[in-house]
């Protein structure tokens, strides 16, 4: 957000590959674990 660019614009501007992560891998892993722990991405019970 410092450059007011989308992730695609940012990668292009700085010559990064298309699959370059926008967050640190350990941060993404912790957020993923938290989301799974609280049940995000699972179907709701009726």
Describe this structure as you would to a colleague.
This protein has a domain at 7-37. The chain contains two helices and no strands. The mean pLDDT is 90. By secondary structure, the protein is mainly alpha-helical. It has helices at residues 7-13, 25-37. Helix content is 43%, strand content 0%. The N and C termini lie far apart (39 Å).
Radius of gyration: 15 Å
Structural class: mainly alpha
Relative helix content = 40-55%
Spell out the helices and strands N to C. Answer: HH
Helical element count?
2
Report the span from N to C terminus: 39 Å
Number of strands: 0
Beta-strand content estimate: under 5%
Q: What's the mean pLDDT score?
A: 90
Low-confidence stretches: none
For the biggest sheet, the summary is:
none
Overall form: elongated
Describe the protein's topology.
Blueprint lengths: L6 H7 L11 H13 L9
Quick synopsis:
The protein is built from two helices and no strands.
Kindly list the characteristics that best describe this protein.
single chain; 46 residues; mainly alpha; 43% helix
């Amino acid at each position: 957000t410092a450059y007011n660019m989308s992730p695609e614009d940012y990668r292009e501007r700085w010559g990064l590959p298309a699959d370059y992560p926008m967050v640190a891998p350990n941060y993404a892993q912790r957020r993923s674990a938290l989301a799974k722990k609280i049940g995000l991405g699972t179907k709701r019970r009726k």
